[in-house]
From TrEMBL:
It holds the Pfam family DUF1206. It comes from Propioniciclava sinopodophylli. Residues 34-103, 120-187, 208-275 form the DUF1206 domain. The lineage of its organism: Bacteria, Bacillati, Actinomycetota, Actinomycetes, Propionibacteriales. The keyword Transmembrane helix applies. It comes from the Bacteria. The chain crosses the membrane at residues 30-55, 82-108, 120-138, 158-180, 210-229, 251-274. The keyword Transmembrane helix applies. Keywords: Membrane, Transmembrane, Transmembrane helix. InterPro entries: DUF1206. This is DUF1206 domain-containing protein.
Amino acid sequence: MGDAERAARAAAGKGKGAARKVEQSTAYQWLVKVGLVFYGIVHLLVATMAIRLALGMRGVGEEASNTGALRSLAETPLGAGLMWVVAVGFLALVVWQLVTAVIGFHEFDGFKRLRKRVSAALRAVLYGYLGLSAARIASGPDADDGGDAQESLSEGLLALPFGQVLVALVGLAVLGYGIAQIVRAFRESFNEDLDTTLTGKALRLGQAGFIGKGIAIGIVGVLFLWAALDADAQKAGGLDKALQHVLNQPFGTWLLVALATGIGAYGIYCFFWARHAKHA
């Protein structure tokens, strides 16, 4: 074994040791729980906004998306102070998922462990985005970064060589993630993230949540694919635009209410997750 290889292994060992110390910290574990609770609240707010959209009660400037939910929290009496708590909570989730990506999922072997660690790393990116959004809202008036963020991403990618292919790949990745959530619901594999096993009504609630969230994310992926097919960035969009598309379909009101119920169920599942998170 060469000196470089020994140094690399020593560095990796120190990194894993530091990650285990973080994982065992009581303060860190409580911050993770706070982050998951707020993640659940965000989904419940999105569900509420989606129902308001379905019933024609949508307010001016209201957006049924994660960013829209954060803005609505910022408008409560606690305002900016609450947003900083949310930002810290999501930062804890970022650390949690990065630690899990490095040393987690010991109970699995081979490809399954690798897949779960990659998923944890991707969730860290999502939580980081939400945390930065919360911090930006807490700092003052924020720029429009909800559904337009996806449109801006599409515009940037379409301007590149093979832009349509790149946008299509993003769409396929998002669609694949949405389908994966639905598969998790039917396989009940979300129980693998808990230190307990949900049964009965709690299990059905979790399944409804993952199905609802998976469908919503899948529609966002389809919008990216549509934008790639027509080379039109304006056809891409985030969750709010996806929900509006659902509303415009036959029986759209009922479909949107059902989808909102699923998203709300996922929000409630997050409270179970906060209490029984296996890797926190």
